[in-house]
TrEMBL record, chains A, B:
Known DNA-binding region: 33-52
Coiled coil: none
Domain of life: Bacteria
Record keywords: DNA-binding, Repressor, Transcription, Transcription regulation
Keyword tRNA processing in annotation: no
Domain HTH tetR-type per the UniProt entry, residue ranges: 10-70
GO molecular function list: DNA-binding transcription factor activity; transcription cis-regulatory region binding
Protein's name in the database: DNA-binding transcriptional regulator, AcrR family
Length: 195, 195
DNA sequence: GTCTATAAGATGATAGAC
DNA sequence: GTCTATCATCTTATAGAC
């Protein structure tokens, strides 16, 4: 059966999300109007409400998708069994995953304050699951006598903080390649745990 | 001579800046209206324009003041002459200064995208002066054979990234005191440069 | 210096035609 | 599924009285 003319729900839906992602990252959630998103997609503002109940849910959906993608991709990432190998896998995974979606990473950190408490807690829970994975690697390494560190939770924050910061300065056409950056940060992470 | 009744320029001015700082940090620059700021200060919206030509300059002024305060405070901070002592001074200064003004720190990083190119470059230049100070400490330490690291600029970014991240999780009533956090991070910074 | 009033336009969201 | 038209409200900024 032929499709109704002008019906593109399976095409327009993803385009709305991508446009919102791009514009929210560039100007901030509050600064972007539904009309701007509609213009970017090539439809009228009213048509957006076929894809989201309101502006807030558009943001929530972007952030939730990003955090779920992060967790799913990390679980699928090849991981050795020894703590040092797992720490290297985590380091390289984090740098690689984040470098491929700078906009979603930026939004997921930046726009937390625009979430209602319920949505905030949902995103925060996903984020802690990821952080918890690193804490466990560090604790295992300490137990095996391979790592030396004072506080696994604070060290995990420090590692994630320094790895995530890369997105603020890395440029594709800069002095260093992605491989250079990965190697430098893996060396620094090893030093941080005295491995 | 008696003051004109209702004239409070020396009191209201700072109150406008403080209200804007608080509200911009909480909700984001774009999400805050001049009416909200006026309500917080206790005046009508029109009165704000005695203290700022427009909303944009209110943001620029907050960010510029913060960066200049940062540089001035760092210059006044007691600094040893040896690289290791200077690195410790930088670490403790950064944690201490940032912990005292979380809102200004947040805004100065978060709202860069809302600046016109001219204002952005001005703020970015102040920021690099600060980063440059750390790079020089690291380079001096390498030259003296005290530090071992591959890339002084990337290491400086990593250190600043991990130190600045503290503001996102530290709570006054949490498990760790400020002194605990300073000690933990100073240990980690030393490890990062193999000192 | 602060007020009230207002200009000129943008905003999120909905209703109903096609 | 998309459009046009519209509502009610909010926005930044200014003018002029006090």
């Amino acid at each position: 059966m032929a499709r109704t003319r002008g019906s593109h729900s399976d095409i327009t839906g993803p385009r709305v999300e991508r446009a919102a992602l791009r514009l929210f990252a560039k100007h901030g959630y509050a600064a972007v109007s539904m009309r701007q998103i509609a213009t970017e997609v090539g439809v009228q503002a009213g048509a957006l409400y076929n894809y989201t109940p309101d502006k807030q849910m558009l943001l929530v959906s972007l952030m939730k998708t990003h955090m779920q993608d992060l967790l799913a991709a990390y679980e699928a990432w090849p991981k050795p069994v020894d703590p040092l190998g797992r720490l290297e896998a985590f380091t390289r995974f984090h740098l690689s995953f984040n470098s491929e979606r700078p906009e979603a990473v930026f939004i997921s950190y930046m726009e937390l304050r625009n979430l209602t408490p319920e949505h905030f807690n949902e995103i925060a829970a996903l984020r802690s699951r990821y952080e918890r994975a690193l804490v466990e690697i560090l604790e295992d390494g300490v137990q095996d006598g391979i790592f030396q560190l004072e506080d696994a939770r604070v060290t995990a924050f420090a590692i994630i903080g320094m790895l995530t910061q890369v997105n603020t300065w890395f440029r594709e056409d800069g002095r260093l390649s992605r491989a250079d950056v990965e190697a430098l940060y893996w060396t620094m992470v090893q030093r941080l745990v005295s491995a």
